[in-house]
Structures are given as structure tokens and as C-alpha cells.
Specification:
heterodimer, A: about 375 residues, Rossmann fold, 5-stranded parallel β-sheet, about 20% strand, B: about 80 residues, alpha+beta, SH3 type barrels
């Protein structure tokens, strides 16, 4: 597997770890580095990287699991739509088990709703094409990596003149919450491992304002184990030297300006809006909604439906975990009443959630 | 959710490509990237090629990874 196996070489990993140890050997404080992206969280747990790092490097997980930061009210809205007659909900697999206030999509499926797990938003367009007379609602959740693919699906549906394809949008954008966390006085982040594939779209330069405002080092980092170790090494060198720069470890995919064509497709279909992040709260301009030209695809506008009032689950610490303030073990529900089989919070549901990763791979 | 898979382009027809990794083939849209040729490596996410993988940059990254050797950290 070219472009994968080279970055999984255990011997090079050992050398990278030695280089990291050498870099921080004389550093007499603990540095806290945040991996922002859920895919990084999973890679770090899977490879056991946290346990291999020197004691004075603390890795914390951030808010970059799109399923985890999606508010309960969104799940409730999806559940309400699933109960409509002649409706198919098409979604990525992670969403079906996320608890809403009183139900989830899997329960709805068991009681007769039609839920289809798709690999691509284009599959949802095909579903709409093959099921005229049925409304197909795609659950639009995700960051800049995924949003252009949803925009691409909407443009495809427009080209095919489909009148039964809709998206329930809860798309979010990335640098916003990093700035929110950087300005949180209760949280000291000394450096960010910036998301790999969000950055493929938005570009490494997108983090420059964050560096300028908060003097926090940012390293765009790939998802393979050697990528992560090199990203940590680059951050550690900046922190030790007192630098704050944007660096790009993942040059083979991420360009300084990102993927312009994907950005254009995204901008053609979506425009910025305020968004509510589970755990962090409302962040102005950190969401994306459909532009007026595309409201005919907006499930929230076109398929009005009553949604139950949102109820957050008592005792669940997902919100604090998403800010990196507490670890899963600090939550009284973790491993007791909150498990992957019967999850209470989204961080346990999503395969990229911190609690799910800790449950599966933690010690 | 942001996982991407590096795959090689096998055939291209209009805006769609058949891409392969480890013998597994998938169709992917090329809507987001220009000038892709058969044989190129692309990063596939949710049925779309979201970026080309730059082989020269990949070699430079691997070189940087090996720089630890130059720091006197050769295997014991």
C-alpha cells in the first residue's frame, strides 16, 4: 500500500521517539499538545503513542470529531424526519447510534423507519434517483473535509433535477473552535496537531491567524503513526525554542493554500453561519448553511416538522472531554453505564470519539 | 470521519475514476481536482478524490523522518 506502509515502519518510529526524547530532555516543564481531529485521536490510541511519549509531553484530545460536537437537537431533528412517511434517511454510519433526547436512528429503524448507511453523499443522490416519490434526507455532518463532498452531491442532484433529495445540515468549520480553546483561560494548550484532511481543503495557511493571535505553534500532521510522531517532534521543537509558527508535516497532501477547487465548490453551495458546538457552545461564523439558491435542498426548510425539546444527558462529561479538560476516566459514567454497546454520550458512540478510543485501546 | 485512503487511479471516464488500493477498487468523483492521469495517487474521502498525493513531497517527508539517523540515533 504505497503512501501508507512507508509511514508505519517501527524502526523509524523508534528513531522518531528518540529524537522527541532528546528534544525535551532538558525541558523542565510539561507541554500540553492537542490533537484536534478525531481521526488523530483514533490513530494515537490505536498505535499506543500516548504511552510512548516522554512524561513531559501531554497529549490531549480536542473537538474534532464531527459526530461528537453535533448537538442533541440535531439528532432529535433527524429522528423526527425519520418518522415521516415516505422518507429515507441516508447517513454515514457513525450517526445512527448517537443518542437524541428520547431516541436514536437505530431505534427508529427497529420501529419501521428507513435508515440507509452510505459511503458517499453521492450514494444518497443515487437513492433519491431510484426512489422517486420518497424523500431522501442526507445527514450533512462534518468539517471541511466532508462538506465539499456534500456540496458536490447537491450540485449533482441539481444537475439531475431531483426534487426528492434533501440535506439536514450541521456542517462546521475548523479553525474557529481552536481559537475558542486557545482563548480559554482554564485550558493551556502549548501546540496544536492540526487536522490532516481538513487542512487538505483549507490549506496550512488557514492556521496563521491562530498563530498570530495566540502565539500557539500549529503543525499540520498526517494520520499515519510516523506522521503523528514527526508532528509531535516538530511541535516539541517549537515549544522548546519558544517559537510559534505554522509548519506542514503533511506536505505530500496539504498545500499552503489548500484545494482551491474544493473551496470553490463549497463556497458555491454553502455560506458561513453561527453554530452550536456540544461542549464549547456557540461560536460565531463556525458553521455552514446552504446558500439561498440551494434552499430547495434544505430539509430544515422544505420538510417542516415538530422536533421534541432537546434534553442533554445528566452526568455525561462529553462537553468537558471535547475541550480536553477532563479524561474519559474522570467521567462517572465511563465504563459503568456508558459503554460502546449502550452509549450515553456522543464521545462513546463515534468510532473516533475519545471515550470510544479510551474504552477500546486505553489502559 | 475525516479518514482518507490513498488510492491509485486506474481508469477515468468523464468526472469519475476507478481507484485501487490493495486490489480493492472503488469509484470516485474527480469533481474537486484537475489534470488527473491514470497512475496518479489520490486521496479518497467519501467517494471523492479530495487531493492528489505528491510523490516528490512524500520522498522529502521520508527523508526528514530518517534525519533522526543523522542525530546519532542509529539503531543499537
Amino acid at each position: 500500500m504505497k503512501h501508507q506502509n512507508e509511514y508505519r515502519d517501527p524502526e523509524l518510529a523508534r528513531l522518531q521517539l528518540q529524537a522527541i526524547q532528546q528534544t525535551v530532555a532538558d525541558f523542565d516543564q510539561t507541554m500540553t499538545l492537542m490533537e484536534v481531529c478525531g481521526t488523530h485521536t483514533m490513530a494515537i490510541y490505536q498505535q499506543g503513542i500516548r504511552a510512548l511519549l516522554p512524561d513531559n509531553i501531554r497529549l490531549i484530545s480536542g473537538p474534532g470529531c464531527p459526530v461528537c460536537v453535533t448537538p442533541v437537537s440535531y439528532v432529535d431533528h433527524a429522528v423526527a424526519l425519520a418518522r415521516r412517511p415516505e422518507t429515507i434517511i441516508a447517513t454515514f454510519g457513525d450517526m445512527v447510534r448517537v443518542p437524541g433526547s428520547s431516541s436514536n436512528l437505530l431505534h427508529e429503524q427497529a420501529t419501521g423507519a428507513i435508515i440507509r448507511i452510505v459511503y458517499s453523499p453521492l450514494d444518497a443522490v443515487t437513492l433519491a434517483e431510484k426512489n422517486p416519490g420518497t424523500d431522501v434526507v442526507f445527514l450533512g455532518v462534518g468539517f471541511e473535509t466532508t462538506t465539499p463532498t456534500v456540496a458536490g452531491a447537491i450540485l449533482t442532484a441539481a444537475r439531475k433535477n431531483l426534487e426528492n433529495f434533501y440535506v439536514l445540515c450541521s456542517h462546521k468549520t475548523m479553525p474557529g473552535p481552536m481559537a475558542a480553546l486557545a482563548s480559554d483561560p482554564d485550558l493551556q494548550v502549548d501546540g496544536y496537531l492540526c487536522p490532516a484532511h481538513v487542512s487538505a481543503i483549507i490549506g496550512a495557511n488557514a492556521y496563521q491567524p491562530l498563530v498570530d493571535s495566540y502565539q500557539v505553534p500549529c503543525v499540520v500532521t498526517g494520520f499515519e503513526p510516523l506522521d503523528v510522531l514527526q508532528g509531535v517532534l516538530m511541535l516539541a521543537r517549537q515549544v522548546v525554542a519558544g517559537d510559534a509558527r505554522v509548519e506542514n508535516q503533511y506536505n505530500r497532501v496539504v498545500k499552503a493554500d489548500g484545494n482551491r477547487k474544493a473551496q470553490e465548490i463549497l463556497k458555491q453551495v454553502f455560506e458561513p453561519c453561527d453554530a452550536s458546538w456540544r461542549g464549547i457552545g456557540d461560536i460565531p461564523g463556525s458553521g455552514l448553511r446552504l446558500r439561498p439558491n440551494y434552499t430547495r435542498f434544505d430539509a430544515a426548510h422544505q420538510l417542516p416538522i415538530e422536533v421534541e425539546p432537546a434534553v442533554e444527558h445528566q452526568g455525561c462529561l462529553c462537553g468537558e472531554i471535547l475541550k480536553g479538560k477532563v479524561r474519559p476516566h474522570d467521567c462517572p459514567l465511563f465504563r459503568t453505564i456508558c459503554t460502546p454497546e449502550d452509549p450515553v454520550g456522543a464521545c462513546m458512540v463515534s468510532s473516533e470519539g475519545t471515550c470510544a478510543a479510551e474504552y477500546k485501546y486505553g489502559t | 470521519m475525516c479518514l482518507g485512503v490513498p488510492m491509485q487511479v486506474k481508469t477515468i471516464e468523464n468526472e469519475m475514476a476507478v481507484c485501487e488500493i490493495d486490489g480493492v477498487q472503488r469509484e470516485a468523483s474527480l469533481m474537486m481536482i484537475d489534470d488527473i492521469q491514470v497512475g496518479d495517487y489520490v486521496l479518497i474521502h467519501a467517494g471523492f478524490a479530495i487531493e492528489r498525493i505528491d510523490d516528490d513531497e512524500a520522498q522529502l517527508t521520508l527523508q526528514a523522518l530518517r534525519e533522526a539517523l543523522d542525530m546519532g540515533l542509529a539503531p543499537e
